[in-house]
Amino acid sequence: MKLYDMELSGNCYKIRLFCALLGLQFQSVTVDLMRGEHKQPAILQLNPRGQIPVLDDGGIIVWDSLAILTYLARKYGNEQWLPLAAEPLARVMQWLALSENELLYGLARARAVKKFKRPWDLSQCQEHGKQGLAALEQQLNGRLWLADEHPTLADIACYPYVALAPEGDMVLDEYPQIRAWLSRIQVLPGYIGMPGI
Amino acid sequence: MKLYDMELSGNCYKIRLFCALLGLQFQSVTVDLMRGEHKQPAILQLNPRGQIPVLDDGGIIVWDSLAILTYLARKYGNEQWLPLAAEPLARVMQWLALSENELLYGLARARAVKKFKRPWDLSQCQEHGKQGLAALEQQLNGRLWLADEHPTLADIACYPYVALAPEGDMVLDEYPQIRAWLSRIQVLPGYIGMPGI
Asked: Is CATH 3.30.470.10 the classification given to domain B2-76?
């Protein structure tokens, strides 16, 4: 299994983290976003969006972190990570959606403005991110995990850009439930970190 | 079944359209976004994000359009709409992710700037939206549907904000494959439209 990857990408880290928790081995192929390698033919022929992560699992190509997470859960995980019944599946999907919205366009973009000089409006991104943090803090009040009694893909998908939020000048001091949840993820068997966390 | 809904919301329309294709009846409860009703306690107690759509299916509350689509597909649809095997599931999820990224933060935001005077950078949104349109156009070259040999949730999730793109000053003239795909969706049995399409 091959992962087109970059160390500082939170979306790539989601996949590395989930593989580590599942005990899956893969070969990491570094794609240098700073040099625009993701917009070169080698990546574009795998992913029409010109983004990473991209997974190559014995010739099965999957792009997009959300799609790769669900692929790995179904192929190598179990229903703990991605339940199939309508209601628990919807619970997981709600937080996967939050990870693609408030967390990606809020927290991750704020981080990208500060860290990679991207051209977005920092305060708009931070404000959007805060809405996501507020929803997470409320959900985790009295719960250990976001979508079920145990960790699911929801926790894996939301974790990276929340943990990286301070790199976008977002402080987590006022979110005690979130901080406790980050700590719980960090002691899951197999857990790995990334620079900035 | 009750849907907290607004006629002009493309995300709400995704749910109305999918219910129509499945032949599901529901009661539409209008939430007036212009008057901020989605940030009032009645909605906030259902959805911590303060957004619509929200589904109430006999007391089971599901928020977020992506989560509601997967809920309805699993509960009332069949695997045609949301396959469960790893690889076809990943194919559907790829385009669901595109619908939450380039289409929502590109096309839908461009529309919201033009139509609802939202404060985002129009050209940034349009540029982001174009990347999504380019990926769709490439995927639909030689294919009838996005993720399989038949319509799936991928098509339902991507359709609304592509069809509404002209309201964000995006012309679809240079995307013949997309225009043919829009027409195919519009003749699916049970299809309904919305204002602007």
From this structure: no
